[in-house]
Design goal:
single chain; about 575 residues; mainly alpha; about 0% strand
């Protein structure tokens, strides 16, 4: 007997020693996990199992790690083993159930959730998940029973009652469905929204008499209830009561207490149901004006007004006034901000564009587009260093999902600035970066090629890029001029003339050439040089003189001499 006792005590001591070592290594493994040393943690958990193979916690953590490493099959095996060893551990149950649900193995997840709901009776989230799964797999009775359990825990709540109503209706059990709503109304007699909801459900089923009875009851208690007005509007429409429908609709539209989204939805319905003629447009605009007299700061209505005006092709200046009203009310409204930025660009109102874009940079510092637009007036005023600094800041702060095209455009802008500053090599590095992000950036291709030609450098590369540009935009006269000039620099005069004729047609009038925005002095000088080299001296002199007459700054210092002496100078 004494020997037996000694053996037992030795076994207990050995067990205690093993457990102490397991606890130590579990602690160390947890510390490694906190420090992000996943591999070390896995080794420690594995060592725990070597000491005590049935250590559920170690098995559980190893299972999670296997999923993290993409070894899903092995991870699932470990997690099931952990649950088997410790079936009352809700953390194990929840982890495994969640993975099974994500893998759409809901039949396997349900028993785990059921066990959790018994172990943690106050877990309403578990019951909600179970009810949802039961409903999704078509087990409506089980779903309702689970909702009943949830109701005992949470009390009579609209969300639960409405869900049970929907479940009963899917089972074609309208009696029990409406009983749920009746009980809800009895539980909250002062809450008219529940009664309105019930009436609306009767209405959808075609029981207009019962629906109207409840609506009338609600109207006695709360006649100005906005929800009641909306459902009554639908009621009148379904019943063909056109006069009452119109009266109620206008009452909702022009009431200052109407929810902004509801008002906008009604206006959208009016627009969608109206023909695209001038009379309807005028009537709709009158409604907008009346609404905005009542709620002048309703941003949603202002935006809808602007969108409608754009759809009906109102003058951009009129739309801009509405968009500006939006920003006056909500300074960070991005849609209005972007629209106005583009509008001011089109109007060449650089001052207004700068103000809008500075606002955009302030409110949306990670949106590179605003930096791009802001750079335009800065660059136009000759503030090249500030322009480069602005663009560089935009590139640093840009959002991760910024489109490659806008990044490419920004690098192109930087390149243009560096070139204007005389830093040609830096400019070309920027252009190279731009083409990495967008190999078809046509503006970059053209500018890069043209500036190389002005320096008489890498003309083969310049020709290749310029040709790509005109392939992308074959009717762009600026790009055609660049290509013609590069051919001229390579002494391909006849080919240069063929392309230049698409830029400066022979039948162009003097007035046209002097007033056309795209036929500047530089292009006219190029055309003259090309004509001279092709033996057409009379046309060359004519074009040089027109170029001098236009007086643009982007010409060679030799232009006045060519125009005066009537001779080509290189």
């Amino acid at each position: 007997m004494r020997h037996l006792l000694i053996i037992i005590l030795l076994g207990v001591c050995q067990w205690a020693g093993a457990q102490t070592r397991v606890d130590y290594f579990m602690h160390e493994a947890a510390r490694c996990m906190v420090q992000g040393q996943v591999s070390s943690a896995a080794d420690l958990y594995q060592h725990c199992l070597e000491i005590e193979p049935s250590t559920a916690e170690a098995i559980f953590h190893l299972g999670r790690m296997k999923f993290y490493l993409g070894e899903d099959s092995l991870g699932m095996e470990y997690l099931y083993k952990a649950v088997e060893l410790d079936s009352c551990n809700c953390s194990y149950l929840e982890t495994l159930a969640t993975i099974l649900i994500n893998q759409r193995c809901v039949d396997e997840a349900l028993p785990l959730l059921e066990r959790m709901s018994k172990l943690q009776a106050k877990r309403s989230d578990v019951l909600s998940m179970m009810a949802k799964i039961y409903a999704n797999v078509g087990r409506m009775e089980d779903a309702i029973q689970t909702m009943n359990r949830l109701e005992l825990l949470e009390g009579k709540l609209p969300s639960i009652s409405f869900e049970k109503f929907n479940l009963y209706m899917e089972m074609s059990d309208s009696v029990n469905a409406f009983r749920e709503l009746e009980e809800l109304c009895a539980e909250y007699p002062a809450d008219m929204s529940n009664r309105i909801h019930m009436a609306y459900q009767y209405q959808l089923l075609g029981n207009f008499e019962q629906a109207l009875k409840i609506y009338d009851e609600v109207k006695k208690v709360d006649p100005s209830n906005p929800t009641l007005q909306m459902v009554m509007l639908d009621y009148y429409n379904m019943q063909g009561m056109d006069s009452l429908y119109t009266t109620t609709r206008d009452s909702i539209l022009f009431s200052p207490s109407t929810d902004s989204q509801k008002r906008a939805r009604l206006m959208e319905n009016i627009i969608e149901s109206s023909p695209d003629d001038s009379a309807s447009t005028e009537a709709i605009m009158m409604r907008f004006n009346r609404i905005l007299e009542v709620v002048p700061n309703d941003v949603q209505m202002l935006m809808l007004n602007a969108i409608y005006m754009e759809y009906r092709k109102f003058p951009p200046a009129d739309i801009a006034m509405v968009m500006q009203r939006v920003l006056d009310v909500q300074p960070d409204q991005e849609t209005a901000m972007r629209w106005l930025a583009q509008y001011h660009i089109a109007q060449r109102d650089l001052s207004a564009m700068e103000e809008i874009c500075r606002r955009g940079v302030n409110y949306y510092p990670s949106n590179l587009t605003y930096y791009y637009f802001l750079a335009l007036p800065l660059m136009n005023s000759g503030n090249y260093e500030e322009t480069i600094e602005t663009l560089a800041r935009g590139l640093r702060l840009r959002a991760e999902d910024t489109k490659a095209e806008i990044i490419s455009d920004v690098y192109t802008q930087k390149g243009d600035c560096y070139y204007e500053m005389g830093k040609h090599e830096e400019a070309f590095l920027q252009y190279d970066s731009a083409l990495v992000y967008n190999k078809d950036n046509v503006l970059c291709l053209n500018n890069y090629a043209y500036f190389l030609s002005l320096l008489n450098k890498d003309l083969g590369k310049a020709e290749e890029m310029s040709y790509r540009a005109i392939k992308l935009e074959p009717d762009n006269r600026t790009y055609l001029d660049t290509y013609a000039w590069i051919l001229f620099m390579q002494e391909q005069y006849a080919e240069a003339e063929r392309y230049m004729e698409r830029v400066v047609p022979r039948d162009s009038s003097e007035h046209y050439l002097l007033t056309d925005d795209y036929t500047g002095s530089a292009i006219l000088e190029h055309a003259g040089d090309i004509a001279w080299m092709n033996g057409d001296t009379q046309r060359a002199i004519y074009l040089w003189q027109l170029a001098a007459k236009r007086g643009d700054a982007d010409v060679t210092p030799l232009l006045p001499k060519k125009a005066r002496k009537k001779k080509y100078y290189k």
